Structures are given as C-alpha cells and as structure tokens.
C-alpha cells in the first residue's frame, strides 16, 4: 500500500513540474511586442493585490507587465538597480530598490532593454524627510559651529535659521550636521531641507521664551558674586549676556544657594512660567545651558521653579555630567520635574519662587556654569 502511495506522489510531482515548466516556457518565450508595465506590487504572495506607487530603499518589488524578458538595466531616479536575469521573465521582474540616495529626483523607473529601447513608469522612492531631534547647544555665537542631531540628513542639504539666513555646512552624516552660525541668525526654529523634504524644528535656536533665571540683570536674594558679566580669558565664553559660574569646593551636605528668591525679589521674571505648563506639564520642557570646566561628579543640585514656597527636597539633578568646558543644552521633561513634588503645581499669577541649591552627599570640586533657565513647549505649534 505504501509503495502504491509513493508511486502516486511521484507521478503527481512529475505532472506538476511539467505543468509549471510548460507555463514558464509560455510566459518566457521571446516576444516581439512592445514592453509595457501594468502595475507594481509587493512580492508577498499573500498580498499580491497590494499595488505600489512608491517603495522605500532596499525594498524588493515586482514589476508586472508584458514583453519584459529583454530588460538589461533598471534605474530608480538616477540610481541603477542590480538586475538578476533569473528574476526577469516576459511578464514580471523582481528587483530591489537601490539603497543609495538619489541626487536627480525624477520619481520614475526607467527600464533599458537589449535593443536599446527604454520604458519609463511613474514610481517614487520613499525617502524620509529630515528629522531634527536636538542641538548639542541651542545657544551658539555667530561664526561658531552649531551641532544638529537627528536623522535622514541626506546631501545636498541646507540649514536656515530664523531671520532667513543660511548657515555654512561644515560636515554632514546621516544623523549629525555641523553648521557655522551666520550673521543675522535670530531666535526661533531652524529649518533643514533636503531633496526629500524640509523640516522646521520644534526647538528654538537661541530660545528667548519664558526665561525664568538668567541674571540679565541679576535679581533675587543670592548670589551676585556668582554672576559673570565680563568673561576673562579663563572664563567660559558668554552665550547670552550674563551667566552664573560656581567655582569652589562644596563639601558633602554643604548648603550652597546659588541663585533665586521669592517672587518679589526675582521681579517680573518670576511670572514667566506659562500657565499651560503648570496645568499640563507633559507638554513642556525645562531647559537650560550648562558648562562644566570640571566634571559635576558628586553632591546634588536642587531646582525650585514653579513653586509657592521654597522646597528643600525639590527636583534633584544628580551627577554625573561633564561637558569638557563647552556649553551644552540640558532638557528635562517638565512633567518629570513636576512629579518630584508631592503636591501638583498650581498657577500663581503673582509669580513663583526660584532657587538653585547645592546640597547632597560627597565633596564637589565645582567649576560649573549655568544660563537661560526656561520652560518651553515641546512642540512648536506656530
């Protein structure tokens, strides 16, 4: 019985092979008609009805039509695909979209045949527009290099600052742009443009919104001696007027108030936290610039912003951080900051208490500078 069953299976397999070969031979025979493309689809047999007008780099697609057997070259925009002859038949071609980024964007596939004839078909290679994630520092002087981090930074590329001025590109990788800040750059979003789209940043370059502590001018109870107004040769460069520099040894649990005060001592700046940030902190970030000439590697820095009184527990900004003498923008989600307090933040029309305090375990040989504390929207809706 088993031998009869095996014989039947063998006969069935031979029959199927003959049928498949016969079918392929009919499809692959030389045709003299004009090549045509009927449609393009994905190669998954379970999704053969999924037609495409675009595909991403590296994706395998099936070009379906007639009289395609003599295809020799296939171009996507100005990038040549690898053609495997075993995947070319009269009625279809399997080919992968080239991974290389095109320069000349035609949004077409061009097939070149053995007789020199060509066939064009509308088809877009889907390449993402630029993504701007963050800048190493959002405050950079004119003429200096700003670093923009993100993705899909494909050349050719331009960076335009608020004020409509374009920066000089120093270097580009897919994820990092280094650009020289031009004269005339204003506070506001930056725009990165490639052949595949343009993106305006949610962050603001030289962000001057909702500043809650900057010492321009100095206000508060403490500590005017920390304010640098005219940097010397051994001081960090100024990025936005005055800044705060703490350069001293701070002992373990040594109470060191650096800046701040109640609303009446801080003045109008104490009212700069938007009501919307207090009510929906998840929509905002606390940002500031920091510069460590010596690493912040011990002790604890405590922030009090948006409060109705001083809070000794506060938000703990713990070490380590080492910017190696360069200014760097720090971003703390404002809801993370707000969650540090037992009670929800509440709107205070008369202003908020402010304090930057060193208080924690471990002696710190401090040389750390701060500037531009601000509470700003995560998303630019303008």
Silhouette: elongated
Helical residue percent?
10-25%
Structural class: mainly beta
Taking Cα atoms only, what radius of gyration do you get, to the nearest Å?
32 Å
Q: How many β-strand stretches?
A: 27
Average pLDDT metric? 91
Q: Which stretches are poorly predicted, pLDDT < 50 over at least 5 residues? A: 1-29
What separation lies between the terminal Cα atoms?
Answer: 80 Å
User: What's the quaternary structure here?
Assistant: single chain
Number of helices: 4
Share of β-strand residues: 35-45%
Biggest β-sheet strands, sense, barrel: 6 strands, antiparallel
Offer a few descriptive terms.
disordered N terminus; 382 residues; 11% helix; single chain; mainly beta; 38% strand; 4 helices
What do these coordinates show?
- Residues 205-377 form the Surface glycan-binding protein B xyloglucan binding domain.
- The chain is mainly β.
- It has helices at 2-28, 263-266, 275-279, 334-338, and strands at residues 36-42, 54-56, 60-66, 71-76, 79-80, 92-96, 108-113, 118-122, 124-126, 131-135, 145-151, 158-161, 165-166, 168-172, 176-180, 191-194, 197-200, 211-213, 227-228, 243-250, 256-261, 284-292, 301-307, 315-317, 328-333, 353-358, 364-377.
- Strands 18, 19, 20, 22, 25 and 27 form a six-stranded antiparallel sheet that branches. A four-stranded antiparallel sheet has the order 5-4-7-8, with no helix packed on it.
- The protein is elongated.
- The model is unreliable at 1-29 (pLDDT under 50).
Kindly summarize this structure in a few lines.
The protein is built from 4 helices and 27 strands.
